[in-house]
Design a protein that fits this description.
421 residues, alpha/beta, Dihydrodipicolinate Reductase, domain 2, 2 domains, 6-stranded parallel sheet, 14 helices, 34% helix
């Protein structure tokens, strides 16, 4: 049995997305207590009561002044950078929803804070555990691709399929000002699935933005708080060591994003992989193999559902959690496997990555340096689009240093949390 330390967590932002994660954090054996705060106190109180959480705080500042060990940020996407730095400087480990930040300067400030404090930072990028990314990462580890010289990542989420309602919920009467958020400033669901599978980083980019013509006040520069009228954008990146990556961020697109939001393609000298809405194919010089079944998220069922009686025991947890067969359900704590996941089975793994990193003082997969490589390319791509596709260099902060994580005495000892089921 591995003995480690448990920790308390504060959720910042009690909107629609936060509730999916607060439930998982509360169930994790490494997390002792979960608290919530929101600028609308009634939302925080409702979430805490609904899920039986430990309680609420009146403000983000009050959380930072408390003895909470960690903070999980689920606020509006353009607010993350400064909040993360503030939390790190207050001595808190930080989990942040995507994106990491919206400027090079904000990202640099996060990395500096992580380096100086030795605290855990993790960005909750769902595409790192997208079944296609997991599959491609495994085939790359086997050497099946040969040299990967080209890859594609698409985040195809039409505004009509959920985004209008989401912005109205979070933005209030002035929601159209924020609904114009530039597509390339939300690049991690596409870039993360490429870099998260093949490694490396972008070194330059040329991007073309498509100006919106719907005429409904969204993506209207006169309304937008971001001075943005791009609803779609396509970027071509040069990768370190040679090769290229094409990224699409589409918000006006005839595509069923409720069935699949992100999709990926990877081409190597010996093998390739391509994904559509409900089809995924591995190809090499001999032929092709349909691998769709390995990547399909299974329907959630109760543990005692009679239809699971004859199911391979290795897949039963995947059915209960809503994972795909390619996911390693066995690495998850039993308490998480008993709950449904989200975003194609990624939520469980993200919560476990962060909880494990904090409790064992190890570096999470999507640490600050890796998160920068998922986020910075889009920030520079947007600048390229504003300059009519001018090719611009993409900065890189390097790999995470070996001493990035410092031993911590801030988390209280909790016995027997090593029993992960």
């Amino acid at each position: 049995m591995t003995h480690t330390t448990g920790f308390s967590l504060g959720i910042v932002g009690a909107g629609q997305f936060a509730g999916q994660f607060s439930k998982l954090f509360d169930a994790h054996p490494y997390v002792t207590d979960v608290y919530v705060t929101d600028v609308l106190p009634e939302r925080a109180e409702a979430l805490a009561e609904r899920q039986g959480l430990a309680g609420t705080f009146p403000s983000f500042e009050a959380m930072l002044e408390s003895d909470l060990d960690a903070i999980a940020i689920f606020t509006q996407r353009w607010t993350h950078g400064p909040l993360v730095v503030q939390a790190l400087r207050a001595g808190k480990h930080v989990y942040s929803a995507v994106p990491m930040a919206i400027s090079v300067e904000e990202i640099a400030a996060i990395i500096e804070a992580v380096r100086e404090t030795g605290l855990t930072y993790m960005m909750g990028e769902t595409s790192y555990y997208n079944p296609a990314t997991v599959y491609a990462r495994g085939r790359r580890a086997e050497g099946a691709f040969g040299r990967i010289f080209y890859a594609e990542g698409d985040y195809v989420h039409d505004m009509d399929l959920g985004f209008y309602a989401a912005y109205q919920y979070s933005g209030g009467p002035e929601w159209k000002r924020t609904a114009s958020y530039p597509p390339m400033l939300y690049p991690t669901h596409s870039v993360g699935g490429v870099i998260g599978a093949i490694g490396g980083h972008a070194v330059s980019v040329s991007c073309i933005g498509v100006r919106d013509d719907r005429g409904d006040g969204v993506f209207d520069r006169e309304v937008s708080m971001f001075d943005n009228d791009f609803s779609n954008a396509t970027a071509l990146f040069e990768l370190a060591g040679g090769g290229s990556m094409r990224i699409n961020e589409f918000r006006r697109v005839g595509y069923p994003s409720h069935l699949r939001e992100s999709r990926f393609r990877y081409f190597g000298t010996e093998g390739s992989f391509e994904q559509l809405v409900e089809t995924a194919v591995w190809q090499d010089k001999e032929g092709f193999t349909d691998v769709s079944a390995q990547l399909t998220t299974l329907p959630t069922m109760a543990h005692d559902d009679p239809s699971l009686a004859d199911v391979d025991p290795a897949l039963r947890d995947a059915f209960v959690s809503g994972l795909a067969p390619v996911h390693d359900a066995g690495r998850l704590p039993a308490a998480l496997r008993a709950l449904p996941s989200g975003h194609e089975g990624s939520h469980h793994f993200l919560v476990d990555d962060f909880a494990t990193a904090v409790a064992t003082r190890t570096l999470p997969p999507v640490n600050a340096w890796e998160a920068a490589r998922y986020t910075l390319p889009g920030i520079v791509a947007h600048q390229s689009a504003l300059r009519s596709g001018e090719r611009l260099p993409v900065p890189d902060f390097g790999d995470a240093p070996a001493d990035a994580v410092a031993p911590s005495s801030s988390v209280a000892s909790r016995p027997a949390v090593g029993d992960r089921g």
